[in-house]
Amino acid sequence: MKALVWHGTTDIRCDSVPDPEIEQPRDAIIKVTSCAICGSDLHLYNHFMPGMKSGDIMGHETMGEVVEVGSEAKGKLKVGDRVVIPFTIICGECEQCKRGNFSVCERTNRNGHIAAKAFGHTTAGLFGYTHLTGGYAGGQAEYLRVPFADATHIKVPNGIPDEKLLFLSDIFPTGWQAAVQCDIQPTDTVAIWGCGPVGQMTIRSAILLGAKQVIAIDRIPERLAMAGAGGAITINIDEDSVIERLNELTNGKGPEKCIDAVGMEAHATATIDSMYDRVKQATMMETDRPHVLREMAYVCRPAGTLSIPGVYGGLLDKIPFGAIMNKGLTIRTGQTHVNRWSDDLLRRIEKGQIDPSFVITHTVSLDEGPDMYKVFRDKQDGCIKVVIKP
Ligand SMILES: [Zn+2]
Ligand SMILES: [Zn+2]
């Protein structure tokens, strides 16, 4: 089959590789009908995240049709079922899965001992996302082996196009969880840093959840235009001071809820602290750039919440913890517990409350995938979200 394969920094190729096969009784094989490139794939493309090996298949936003089912997954899945595959692999049986904390499933990361060295405890296995999260093949391919497939799937009905359903795999529940974690009240101003695909889903989620005003912060005009079309007030960081504008929009009090949908590759702006991060990151003294986190901690209204769906990998320094503690801020973080939200979100798509396909700007074949990584990273051609049709 064809698949997008990682060979090194900024070197992803469309290769011919062996078809996946059932390896464990709980596996299933799906024929991929649609997959997508995620912003966090760029962390692998740019090699900010360690743990990739040459030959690894990329991709963790995938849906398709079940073509083969292992003996122990047969009660839950059958050939012909249409499924979206959550990016987090879940066993459905451990203590964390039983509590709905799926992204910290205790059993699915087969390299959990390595994750535990980095984080203190293991986290769930992920598709196509380094050997720290299990080294599982990803779904930017014609076929995908789904481990723990009896639990790791979202069944979706026929009659709704892939484009509306595919993002149940990651960015829609990720944006939703980021907004839900803010416990949004009808009087709240919610400020969202980053208008990439996750930021766009967060904006729409915060509006669906009834925020008084939602403010979107970015520097790319087409992303800001998309945010505005979704109902957000926009701030272009190249034109305005973020903190001044946020204070203007909140009578000097600051937003109650601040969401970092940027993560470790935050744009290095001309501010002193981000230059400092850039130097430290370039010299490997610091792995992540927390400029957005700092800005959020300072501007957030006392007793407010900082929600962080953006991906961080390692250590941060110069975090204004005094501001966080003295202002009584709540920090909520986490990889997405996809299956915790998927029933509700599927119903909202079916009812027409939201159509997540608004975010798609490019649809290409697998052969065009390697070029699209570059186009997406460099935000060329108005690119916000790429869907691949194998
Ligand atoms: Zn993702
Ligand atoms: Zn589990």
TrEMBL record:
Its cofactor is Zn(2+). Signal peptide: none annotated. InterPro entries: ADH-like_C (IPR013149), ADH-like_N (IPR013154), ADH_Zn_CS (IPR002328), GroES-like_sf (IPR011032), NAD(P)-bd_dom_sf (IPR036291). Residues 25-153 form the Alcohol dehydrogenase-like N-terminal domain. Residues 197-272 form the Alcohol dehydrogenase-like C-terminal domain. SUPFAM superfamilies: GroES-like, NAD(P)-binding Rossmann-fold domains. One of its GO terms (molecular function) is zinc ion binding. Belongs to the zinc-containing alcohol dehydrogenase family. This is Glutathione-dependent formaldehyde dehydrogenase.
